[in-house]
Amino acid sequence: MRKRDMATLFFMVALSLNVMAQPKAIDIWQGKVPGAIADPSYKFAVDTTSAYSFICRVSNPILDMYPAPTDKANGTAVVICPGGGYAGLAFKHEGAQVASWLNSLGVTAFVLKYRLPSDAIMKDKSVGPLQDAEEAIRIVRRHAKEWNISPAKIGIMGFSAGGHLAATLSTHFDEQVYKPADETSARPDFSILIYPVISMDSQLTHSGSRRNLLGDTPSEELVKHYSNELQVTANTPPAFLVHSSDDKVVPVKNSIDYALALGKYNISYELHIFKSGGHGYGLGKSDGTEKAWPEICKSWLKARGLL
Questions:
Q1: Radius of gyration for the alpha carbons in the chain, expressed in angstroms and rounded
Q2: 95 Cα distance to chain centroid
Q3: Which residue, 27, 52, 79, 141, has most beta carbons within 10 Å?
């Protein structure tokens, strides 16, 4: 084969691999977003002014699908909820990069670009993210056979405020916050919570997440409802939790209280507290011990028969 032909072949193979690596974007509501308020001025944006790239102003939630490699696929799927204080979505280091890591384990990953709470586009902003998370799980479960996924091996994963959404789904999955198309369950089979906001208690929560989700002066009833350490039941799924003791953004007690609540119901959990790391480190970005959490999580998934 001539060098020019070989170069052309190499380019075409590289191009095809690049196309294959692109996620499939799934429109969650197909234009029928529950509880939506039309606001043409509320437009999707990407904020690059901060240390990380954030997606902002999501009015039409999307589920990005990253299929597991065929030779590695094990039937497990995880829906990922990036963090961002319910003000934005850290879609790279708490989304796409995590999806790539899960793919390497044979797990099909979905990054949920959920709506950020806003009175401008929602009749009730406190339920908007939960509506998106419930429907995301239902979509994955409805298409499980088509996508080579086991309907009993579908988990939810969240970072920071995305961890609050993942924990909310884990404790409120049977709450009818919209009228589903069928009786497909929205219950995740397991949860992975990384430096999560769990509580809305003013003494424990991340104030920005609470304000964005519940408003400036939420009722005690609403605060309790979305304090997920108080909403655990015998049907709450098992959890893997990671936090750093020096987290100044979301106190480590969030994860501790959730783990203790799970323990009261004899629900299996693992809680890993690292000495350092702070907040927002994704898969790990320093030489600290917190960078070990993905490997520990891999072992947890394997021990549960998910890998």
A1: 19
A2: 8
A3: 79
Q: What is the pTM of this model?
A: 0.92
The Cα–Cα gap between 28 and 67 comes to 17
Instruction: Output the CA–CA distances (angstroms, integers) from residue 184 to 55, 62, 141, 231, in the order listed.
Output: 29, 19, 7, 22
pLDDT in tens, 226-240: 999 999 999 999 999
- Record the tokens describing residue 88, joined without a space: 């934005």
> Going by DSSP bridges, is the β-strand pair 62-66/45-47 parallel, antiparallel, or unpaired?
unpaired
Interstrand relation of 54-56 and 45-47 (parallel, antiparallel or unpaired): antiparallel
Give the integer Cα–Cα distance in Å for 188 and 198.
Answer: 17
d(CA 122, CA 128): 7
Digit-coded pLDDT (tens) for 190-207: 999 999 999 999 999 999
Residue appearing with tokens 């939790």: 241
**Is residue 137 helix, strand or coil?**
helix
- Region of 224 on the Ramachandran plot (φ > 0 left; ψ -120 to 50 alpha; else beta): alpha
